[in-house]
Amino acid sequence: MSIWFKPYTLADLTLRIGMAKHLGIEFTEIGPDYLRGRMPVDDRTHQPYGILHGGASVALAETLGSYAAMLVVDQSRYRCLGQEINANHIRGVASGFVIGTARPVHIGRRSHVWEIRITDQRDKLVCISRLTMAVIDAPT
């Protein structure tokens, strides 16, 4: 059974503006209870030592979790806004792509909690993040 408000396909999900576009984040898969995307590890996302910047990992996590939260609600009635995010950085990555998967821990009427696991291309854990979203009424 799907958690999404309506049936979505990857073609429905676009990142045309802002940080996600600048960092090269793209959605790669939508499943019944998860949203997956990837981000390149390159000069846009490196820190000074030539490995993935922790802030870039957090940007990927928040992009996936926020977008997933938005897909759960009726967007004509509600907005989902990030309230808190944390991340534990487990291993460095110097090149290639990292893949993030957002899954809900809690989907409530006024808040969501999402876990985002980020792995490298060998499926080794790079970062684990938890995102809390506030669900508010859309402006009328």
Short description:
Residues 49-127 form the Thioesterase domain. By secondary structure, the chain is of the alpha+beta class. It contains two helices and six strands, in the order αββαββββ.
Structural features, described:
This protein is α+β, with helices and mostly antiparallel strands. The chain has one domain (10-137): Hotdog Thioesterase (Thiol Ester Dehydrase, Chain A), CATH 3.10.129. Helix content is 18%, strand content 41%. It has 2 helices and 6 strands. The chain has helices spanning 18-23, 54-72; strands at 26-30, 35-41, 78-89, 96-107, 111-119, 125-137. The chain has a 6-stranded antiparallel beta sheet. A hairpin with a 5-residue loop joins β5 (111-119) and β6 (125-137). The relative contact order is 0.20. The model has no long low-confidence stretch (mean pLDDT 96).
